[in-house]
Amino acid sequence: MSPFGGWGLLSAFLALLCCTGSGEEAFEVRMWPEQLMVESGESQVINCSTTCTQPNAGGLETTLHKTLLEEQAQWKLYEVFNVSQDTDVICHFTCSGKQESRSLNISVFYPPKQVLLKLWPTLVAVGRSFTIQCRVPSVAPLEGLTVTLLRGSEIVYNQTFVGTTLSPQEAMVTHNTTAHREDDRHNFSCRAEMDLRSRGGDLVHSVSDPQALDVYEPAQDNQTVIIITVVSVLLFLFVTSVLLCFVFGQQWHQRRTGTYGVQAAWRRLRWAYRA
Description:
The chain has 275 residues and is α+β, with helices and mostly antiparallel strands. The protein contains 2 helices and 18 strands. Strands 12, 13, 15, 16 and 17 form a 5-stranded antiparallel sheet that branches. Strands 1-3-6-5 form a 4-stranded antiparallel sheet, with no helix packed on it. It has a 4-stranded mixed sheet with strand order 2-8-7-4, with no helix packed on it. It is rod-shaped and about 170 Å long. The termini are far apart. Pfam families: ICAM_N. It is found in: Membrane. GO terms for molecular function: integrin binding.
């Protein structure tokens, strides 16, 4: 066979393939939103669309309960209900006998509905330490959750969590700090903020109820008071002893001087009598 004959068969085969596919129109399937994160138990609206001008069929495949809200030739608007776990939904259209589809993963989050603040002790002396604890129960995902401890509007401490666990769990932050005199003029609070914008969600936050800290000036240390008391008593006893010694010494001197005077007078009388 001539080599040109082989090329002729190949050219004929490629031409047949081109003619066979020429009747199929290239098209795309699109979904909006492209990323989706919803709170557990809530519903969401999803739009399915295609670039095919006259699709033969189309729809949304999902295990969730759904309702078709509105439709036109190139798009369909659905609402899905009670999203309680991560799931995939598939949008599909058929155009000129060819089917295209696109999938969307719906992620579920549990927002920080409760933020609980605890101070202990609630009565503290200036310069002494106390503890601030903040608990955020049943929250997920932890990744992107930031817990901030506040004194008034001032940030005392903050912590951003990491982790990919999707089941709800408790996030807790504990911080030790020193009491200042001005602390009793400000309320302490805790703010939990979940940033879901990179995953198709929003910025969700919640704040605890404010709590006050009672701060007082510390009294003198008991050991110092005891030392001062003992020194004062000893000093008093020493001074008293010195005074008593002085008084008794004076009295003893006076008695001794008086005795010597009587004895001298008696001796003078005896000498006078003998003479």
